[in-house]
Amino acid sequence: MAERYVKVYTRFNRVWHWSQMVSIMLLFFTGARLLGLHQIGPFGLAVTVHTVVALALLLLWAFATFWLFTTEGWKQFIPRIAGFAKVARFYAYGVFKGEEHPYHKTYERRHNPLQAAAYFALKMALFPAIWISGLLYLTYGVWGANDLGSAMLTLIANIHVLAAFAIASFVVVHIYLLTIGHGFREHVRPMITGYDKIDLCPEGEAYFAKQGKLKPLED
Amino acid sequence: MKLRTLRVTAFVSAVVLGAGGAFAQSTPAGEETPAAGAMSIASDLAAKAAHMSDPVVESTADHSKFDVLKGPFKSGPEVTAACLSCHTEASNQVMHSVHWKWEYQNESTGQTLGKAHELNAFCGNVASNEVRCTSCHTGYDWEDVRAPMPDDPTKVDCLVCHDTSGQYAKQDNLAGNPPLEPVAEKAKTITGKAAWAVDLIKAAQSVGPEPSRENCGNCHFYGGGGDNVKHGDLSSALFDPTPHVDVHMSKDGANMQCADCHVSDKHVFAGSRYETDVVDPHAGDMKPGQPREVASCTSCHTDAPHKGPNPILGMKLNDHTDRVACQTCHIPEFAKGGVATKTVWDWSTAGKLKDGKPYSEEEFVQSDGKHLHTYLSTKGDFEWGENVTPYYAWSNGVMTYTLPETEIDPTQTLEINSIGGGAEDPNSRIFPFKRMIGKQAYDAERKVLAYNNVYGPGNGTALWSYFDWEKSLKAGMDYAGVEYSGKFDFVSTYMYWPITHMVGPEDEALKCDSCHAKDGRLANIAGVYMPGSGIGIGGKLGLVIFLLAALGVAGHGVLRLFGKKGAHHG
């Protein structure tokens, strides 16, 4: 077994991640303006940016979903039990003792079990919650006439805001976890260059070398 | 063949008819040709008709050409009689209008309203003060509002609405009659100007079809006894407003007249403050070119008028129209254009004298430098406001009034009229109002609002002449035929006036965060979700989750720091 830098994140993968990052940050900022958490910029501008960015992100998601299901990338996000406890124990205890991360990435499973579970929850619960409530909010003009007293709109808006805060909490933990182990820059680099350190058997090494997915050894 | 037969028939008929006419006039048959006889009747009737060589004018009738309007006229009713000689049905139409009857049957509340019946927060009541109050009536000589105006077509004042000479006016204490030669000393018109002798002939010959803003404004801009006193959004500033003051009426805007929105049918005008068209029930089923019947914004603009500033905001702004009236955003303030409106009228201080004489204080300075009265011995204390922020409330347009015999609770601020509707009603909108603050006399024992006799020089009871509340109220109540205990006090009141005029240009409309903010303009409005006005349960819960995540991460980080250090030292 040897650890080699393998091209784990394709260009689409990286574009997807970073445009999602920029969109979500813009949505947080404008969303907070609409909620009244800050007063930076006009309200109307915040509405416009929030809507445009949200629609663009939905389009990106549509592409990403299509991409995931046609490339078998979706399998990366299926949670599993094996190794879950070990990783959980590491974050709760081992990390304080300077232990090594118990999970070693493979090409087929680049997420550790805890990570996979978190992404699964994000994709299956929080993202649908935010965009379904968001679309309903956006299309109020179509159904709002039946919402006397604003009960439905209030419910939808509250779900939307709650989901947004939950996603924001995810982002906080997500960024924090980048600082664990080999350090922030080490963790961010693969999502920029596409290459990540992967355990490879000699056959695998040969296979990826042939595919041109191996980063040449520097020394 | 057929044509020729027709020509022959026509000729024969003309000869027979012409001959008949000639015989009837007993003129010798040989002197005048039959055809010329027919011509003479036509030319008599058409003697004043404009020829092709004359300039083309708007109207089909030039009233200055009518003999019947050449006068002389000794009074308003004589002019009206002349009008009726052609417009035989006009007075009948007018006499079926609120303008004439001062009575309004509110079908949705069952109340009988109108100036002749209700009490308001200004001069209170018409009864016992007639000749002063009815100076603005669309008729002549209504001297007792306890009975309807008599069915007398000549008592309708045509000129007040149709004069275009600009010199017709009503005197402020002649029950609707104009000041005529000789004009009484110190007489005033209903707009407060020194009265002049009206030239009735000039006025009669000047009449035009639809009333202009001058016609409407000379009464409606001066409601409550002075310029903009009552409505707040109807003042002399609308005679020639800038687009800022009124984008519809400005000559640099749409240059519209009152009657362009307040369309009329048989002399009955659309628009009412008793039942306001908050939503336009027929805007949707109107065919192109079909005449409108209501004075509502949406009857011209539709309920989805916003196109910008970009398609998304346009759509979002249109999403508001099912809950927010156009006026709410588009009339951010009223009493614009340099004419203040009365905002507070406290009757309870009226009657104070200095050295036995009435006095006044003029401590409000209007933006044009004019001093307005803040105390009058005749009327009490006042406050005024310019560019006033409206009061907002859910409204379905229907007002329920505190009628003269309604029992009141004087410990609470009494609503002279209460606004109908609410968030649960699809026909209600958030609507702007002028909220007039008052203090008015009531019967302290019977707990009903009191009639006051304020006007009546020489009658021994009128407040404005004798400054004695006891006498004024006794006289008012007796006149109105309402039981009076003889004990009175003053109750705090609110009266609501819908704000619908003085729409500014679109870039002066309220911005989003006028309402979408903490303590925004609609902070007192419940039953509608307003993002930005406060954080709801979802937001609070979300904030807790977010803070827990942040705290957890921070705690984890600190522990790691200590852990590593410990490991190092170890």
UniProtKB/TrEMBL annotation, chain A:
Transmembrane segments: 15-36, 43-65, 117-143, 155-179
BP term (GO), one: respiratory electron transport chain
Protein topology in the membrane: Multi-pass membrane protein
UniProt GO cellular component terms: plasma membrane
Stored InterPro entries: Cyt_b561_bac/Ni-Hgenase, Di-haem_cyt_TM, Hydrogenase_cytochrome, Ni-dep_Hydgase_cyt-B
Alphabetized UniProt keyword annotations: Cell membrane, Electron transport, Heme, Iron, Membrane, Metal-binding, Transmembrane, Transmembrane helix, Transport
Coiled-coil ranges from the UniProt annotation: none
GO molecular function, one term: heme binding
Domain annotation Cytochrome b561 bacterial/Ni-hydrogenase: ranges: 8-194
Pfam families per UniProt: Ni_hydr_CYTB (PF01292)
Family: Belongs to the HupC/HyaC/HydC family.
Annotated protein name in UniProt: Cytochrome B
